[in-house]
Specification:
This protein is of the alpha/beta class. It has helices at residues 2-13, 25-30, 43-52, 68-85, 97-106, 119-127, 136-145, 149-155, 184-190, 198-210, 228-241, 244-251, 260-273, 283-288, 359-367, 371-378, 398-408, 417-420, 423-438, 443-457; strands at residues 59-64, 88-93, 113-116, 157-159, 165-167, 169-176, 179-182, 308-309, 329-332, 344-354, 412-415. The protein is built from 20 helices and 11 strands. Helix 11 (228-241) crosses helix 13 (260-273). It is globular. The chain starts with a helix and ends with a helix.
């Protein structure tokens, strides 16, 4: 739910200059970058795909959650598929995608391909026989060509109507949440260095306190969704304190919410958020501060805080005119060196699934395996990919490139847990439980209350 809530902000946060104009008839109208004219792009992948596919006269419907600028961006990519194959792609977007795709698939009027912002919905439709398996070959391609490839295969693998597991959903376009934002000038003035391990991050927090300053700005306020930023903290800390298999068991409630490992991750969050010396305004300000206002302390003079953990969208709420890389920057929310759990990344993303089979739909999934299908969007705005075969130089700016490197360096990728849990938990009891926790309840008690809610809906 919060993935959809914030998706539009990501593009605003990481937008780039207008794309290069091209010349020549229909090409100028349809293609953002002239084939062969920009060395950042793998034009050979485009030409090879074009030589292997002639779908002239065929049509494909594509349905997703993207509207406005995002609609223009996906259409800028499908234009190259049309140019290569001769097929026509009709994209339609809706802010009620999740409801509409259920109606359309059950009514037999599904689009050829649907873009799912949440794996849980795709899994549900697969279990009802409403998605088409993409095949082991595509799953193997993801495993071999995406960083943390098995993580992405698992994200798109579901049980079908017959109970057999298969790969149904192709991951394309990711978001990174494991980020800590800071002002480089503040770090430089104070003599602080960017930490590369969780141990160093905690030591830096202590050093800032010892220097008479405040290390963190944290805000959980979000109107009716108050509490969700804390769930991201807990999810990131679960991935840094436990193997990914435990994270998966937690998401599926195969271990209870008050399991000692989950409780420990919540208390890891509390070590930051429930320490008056660590947070601007003290612990009492954590819940009352709106998440959109919480990073403002970074830019105060003198700074009210030095670090802010939040996803890639947050620059949308930085002061007007803030230049990323100069006025503000970020680093990877680090893992513990001593726990040897690799470099896990928490994030979100979209998955493409065939909901009405056709030759052109199959070809479109194959098109997503080409570097050019990623690089065209990379060069514009708000797009990250774990595809190691795409050229990182194609990213529109340094901020996107740096986030892309975090994604391609990941040893484990996991989707936002609260978005995978039942709505009454992930967008309900988990949110309110985190408010109660910061307000004074113990992690054990909060976990037990959330588990009670989960048991009630089973």
């Amino acid at each position: 739910m919060k993935t959809l809530l914030l998706a539009g902000a990501v593009a605003l946060a990481l937008c780039s200059a207008a794309p290069m104009a091209v010349s020549g008839g229909a090409l100028a109208a349809d293609l953002k970058f002239a084939p062969g004219e920009d060395a950042r792009f793998n034009w050979k992948s485009f030409e090879d795909f074009k030589a292997a596919h002639d779908l002239s006269g065929q049509e494909m419907s594509l349905f997703g959650p993207w509207l406005s600028a995002d609609k223009d961006l996906i259409e800028s990519v499908t234009a190259y598929f049309e140019e290569a194959t001769g097929a026509k792609v009709k994209y339609s977007g809706s802010d009620s995608f999740e409801q509409q795709i259920v109606i359309d698939t059950q009514a037999g009027s599904a689009p050829n391909v649907a873009v799912f912002p949440q794996p849980g919905l795709a899994s549900d439709l697969a279990s009802k026989g409403l998605l088409v398996p993409l095949g082991n070959e595509t799953a193997d391609w993801i495993k071999n060509n995406y960083a943390a490839g098995q993580s992405w295969v698992d994200l798109g693998t579901y049980e079908g109507k017959d109970g057999t597991s298969a790969f149904y959903a192709f991951p394309y376009k990711a978001d990174v949440k494991s980020l800590v934002w800071f002002v480089p000038e503040n770090f430089e003035d104070a003599g602080y260095e960017v930490p590369t391990t969780m141990e160093e991050l905690k030591a830096l927090s202590e050093q800032i306190v010892a220097d008479g300053e405040t290390p963190w700005c944290i805000g959980l306020g979000s109107g009716g969704a108050t509490g969700w930023p804390a769930t991201d903290w807990v999810e990131d800390l679960m991935l840094r304190t436990q193997p990914p298999e435990v994270y998966d068991q937690w998401v599926r409630n195969e271990i209870p919410f008050d399991d000692e490992r989950v409780v420990a991750a919540i208390d890891e969050f509390g070590a930051f958020a429930k320490n008056d010396k660590y947070v601007d305004g003290g612990t009492s300000a954590v819940v009352s501060t709106d998440f959109r206002d919480s990073p403002k302390g970074l830019f105060a003079s003198p700074p009210k805080c030095y670090m802010h953990r939040q996803a890639s969208f947050i620059p949308s709420f930085f002061p007007e005119g803030t230049e990323l890389g100069r006025d503000a920057d970020f680093f990877y929310f680090p893992a513990y060196a001593e726990k040897d759990l690799g470099t896990p990344v928490l994030g979100a993303g979209t998955l493409f699934a065939i909901t009405k089979d056709s030759e052109v739909a199959r070809a479109f999934i194959d098109f997503l395996k080409t570097p050019i299908a990623h690089e065209i969007w990379m060069a514009q705005a708000g797009f990250l990919t774990p595809y190691t075969g795409a050229n990182p130089d194609a990213y529109a700016n340094d901020a996107l490139r740096k986030q892309g490197e975090i994604l391609t360096s990941a040893t484990t990728f996991r989707f936002d847990a609260s978005d995978l849990m039942p709505g009454k938990i992930g967008a309900g009891a988990f949110w309110t439980g985190m408010i109660d926790y910061v307000g004074g309840k113990s992690a054990k008690d909060v976990g037990a209350e959330i588990q009670k809610e989960w048991d009630a809906i089973k």
